[in-house]
Specification:
Blueprint (H helix, E strand, L loop, with lengths): L3 E4 L2 E4 L4 E7 L7 E8 L5 E7 L6 E3 L7 E6 L4 E6 L8 E9 L12 E2 L3 E6 L1
Parallel strand pairs: 2-11
Antiparallel strand pairs: 1-3, 3-8, 4-5, 4-9, 5-6, 7-8, 9-10, 9-11
């Protein structure tokens, strides 16, 4: 069982930056690949970014590539999402997710665990 708690959301102007954090419980965090998803009002939840268990591989949705950076610190059981050059269309609830995967296809698998989400609002 893995519990995930997101933080760092808030209100920011377009062009600004935010860094989201996701703290995970459990001693096996380093064996989980991690994802960020987001859900805008009235829309389905969509994939944003993924990082492998070791942190040496990342994968991004086209809509955020070049603006967002996913990273992790296994010593702190934490994954991050650095969001730069934010746009109004990035407004959403952002969810952290974990999946038990240590192979190279980690970004294709459905998550096993989800956090409760953190709101990000970008004003234009």
């Amino acid at each position: 069982q893995v519990q995930l708690v997101e933080s760092g959301g808030g209100l920011v102007q377009a062009g600004g930056s935010l860094r989201l954090s996701c703290a995970a419980s459990g001693r096996t965090f380093s064996t989980y690949a991690m994802d960020w998803f987001r859900q805008a009002p009235g829309k389905e939840r969509v994939f944003v970014a993924a990082i492998s268990w070791s942190g040496d591989s990342t994968y991004y949705a086209d809509s955020v590539k070049g603006r967002f950076t996913i990273s992790r610190d296994n010593a702190k059981n934490t994954v991050y999402l650095q969001m730069d050059s934010l746009k109004a269309e990035d407004t959403a609830v952002y969810y952290c997710a974990a999946k038990a995967s240590t192979d190279s296809y980690y970004y294709q698998y459905e998550p096993d665990y989800w956090g409760q989400g953190t709101q990000v609002t970008v004003s234009s």
